[in-house]
Design goal:
By secondary structure, this protein is α/β, with parallel strands linked by helices. It has one domain: Alkaline Phosphatase, subunit A (3-Layer(aba) Sandwich). It is 33% helix and 12% strand. It has 15 helices and 16 strands. It has an 8-stranded mixed beta sheet with strand order 6-5-7-1-8-11-4-12, sandwiched between helices. Helix 11 packs antiparallel against helix 13 and helix 12 crosses helix 13.
Amino acid sequence: MKRTRLCHGPTSRRSLLKAGSLLLGGLGLPDLLRLRSAAGARQRADTAVILLWLEGGPSHMETYDMKPQAPQEYRGEFSPIKTNVSGMDVCELLPRHCQLADRMSLVRSIAHQVSDHPGAAGRFLTGRTPRNVSALISEYPTFDSIVGSLREPTSRSGIPQFVSNRAQLKGGGTAYLGPTAGPFVVEFLPPHIAQLPIGPDFDPLDAQFEVANIALEEQVATRLDDRMRMLRSFDQLRRDVDANQQIAASDRFHQRAVQLLSSTATRDAFDLTQESDRLRDRYGRNTLGQSALLARRLVESGCSMITLDWGRVSRKYPTWDDHGDAHHIFKAMKSRLPIYDQALTALIEDVYQRGLDQQVLIIATGEFGRTPKVNMGRAKTPIWPGRDHWPGAMSLLVSGGGWNMGQVIGQTNQQGEYPVERPLDPNDFVATVYRFLGINPEAMILDRRGRPLPLLPSGEPIRELS
């Protein structure tokens, strides 16, 4: 066997370690070392991000940027209500936001040009416009996979550094960072609930609910031990053929994966039964509420990046993709928003009460907004009132991170069509997140062709936030 076959290229290295690969997350070693070196040593190890991804694109006109003075076909059915922050009105279906508004900030003036779901998600999460806006997998790594990959080797807690309830968001992915840069995936919905016919508007959780796939069964533990023995059998071969110790370091990654799964700290972090019934009720006994509670437990235990797909808030009205030929947007919002309101505000309140608000940043956003005028766009023969894709204006919410809270940044025109004050790009927001984490967005990494690319091609941190 030739040395080059053993030491270079992801295919040969992956073949050599196939028996020991756990596919749990992390980054291919050569890329990881390069990325860590490029990003510099200024990372803030005590910081964490919780990204609540509202797949489908929530309507800004029914959430955070209502236009009560606009014509009926623009403003919709709901009215705004005042919060404890002057000028920060929100939808009447979000009453729990009102007393916590001073612990959140709204950005109402982000816009881009990609109107397809996967492409818009890729545009927002990677900072680059995809060549194929319909591709389900991004050609560039999303910022959450970058954050998790940078933090993984520095973690001493045993907790996975990148956790998600989806292996990959639609339009996202790890791209040239490789499959091992993906998240540690947890399942929140018990199988017997998932198999029920659609009845309740949201997924109920019974008293026996627990996060799946965390505790090791004895048979699985034995197989992991066998894999580790097999990895150790390569020691002499590595010493003979790999002087730069890349494979040895990859071996250490797999050892960490086994330690993670067998770690008491990991099991404790995922154990929601350690929380009081009162707190669990405060979050809501549904998939959104309990996943939010788990996110707080994970960041408190040392996890750096949590991405939760909150697209499927309601079983009756899946995703925030409120076309008029799909379902009734106003009925869907009546179903979704109270559940979203409860889970999000419980998370914010909990983070602040535990003194985590300087270290933990909470983000709630989707890939774009919805058409300001009802049923203007894709749905040419709508059955119900709806709104279509609209990247020209969107709103997002942030809380914590030591950022300046209790403010509204930017403004759209009277019909909510486009920004007229403080127009911003998604890259500006991602640059702000990177600065919070102490990551240099101009750091260069190599793509699949060996070309140097910055983590973020453009964007300036939003000065009002930090």
